[in-house]
Hints:
Elements: H1 2-25, E1 31-39, H2 45-61, E2 67-72, E3 85-91, H3 94-100, H4 104-113, E4 117-126
Amino acid sequence: MKKLVLILIAVLSFNNCAKRNETITSMKKQLRHVVLFKFKKEATPEAIKSIENAFIALPNKIEEIKDFEWGLNNSPEGLNKGFTHCFFVTFDSQEDLAKYLPHPSHQAFVALLEPHLDDVLVLDYWNKK
């Protein structure tokens, strides 16, 4: 009986791994737009919070955004060069990104951001399996 239970557990585990691998290999090709911000020393916490909220609101205003996430640097390595915020925006196509960049909601966000921004780093890439 013990062997039967162990065999059943092994079979179920293998099946779950196979399903996960199938999901990974069938991952849809998407364009990732990574944006890192370094704020000016004089940028207030209130201004930074307003900028965070404005960026977070963009997916509800711009239909071309397919996924969005963000976070604050917490790396113990100390290699962030003053960049504190990372925003990760996903698009289905280069055309969607091209519509996003001049979109009035994105441009309003940029106008809000610019007075407080010391530096920005942007990387775009197509996800790979």
